[in-house]
Amino acid sequence: MRCLFFKSTSDQLLLCVFSGLLWVVTNCNKMELSMTNTAESKTIKENNPLLISSPSPPLNVEKVDVVTQNESSITLQWNKVDGISTYRLEIGEGGHINVNDISGEPVVFVVSGLTAGRRYSFTLFTVLNGLYSSGYSFTAVTGR
């Protein structure tokens, strides 16, 4: 039987790091990484607690309709996405409005304080658990 003697603490540390890497490589090779169906994906997650899946962002609204418009406001309407009641409406280059705790379907929202005869660019984001959809962009013009 061969005995190992270490010259320094750094040699011991190096051996520990090497042993840890060897364990990871050996155990990772035992995992099946096929993700072809849900059952296999679930098995991988259950067998490897270090594999963390990140949540997906919510879907965009399908469309936004301009219901009415006058010199200073535009009324918008859209259907909720999966019952989600929190949205963020970006207006132009920097302003935004958080649209929260909406009850009812479809959502009807009035954007007020606008300038007459101006074209506005909007992007509507669905918000769920701090995640934003990619955004639905559209334009609308106030009346003169």
From TrEMBL:
This is Fibronectin type-III domain-containing protein. SUPFAM superfamilies: Fibronectin type III. The lineage of its organism: Eukaryota, Metazoa, Chordata, Craniata, Vertebrata. Residues 57-144 form the Fibronectin type-III domain. InterPro entries: FN3_dom, FN3_sf, Ig-like_fold. Transmembrane segments: none annotated. It comes from the Eukaryota. Pfam families: fn3.
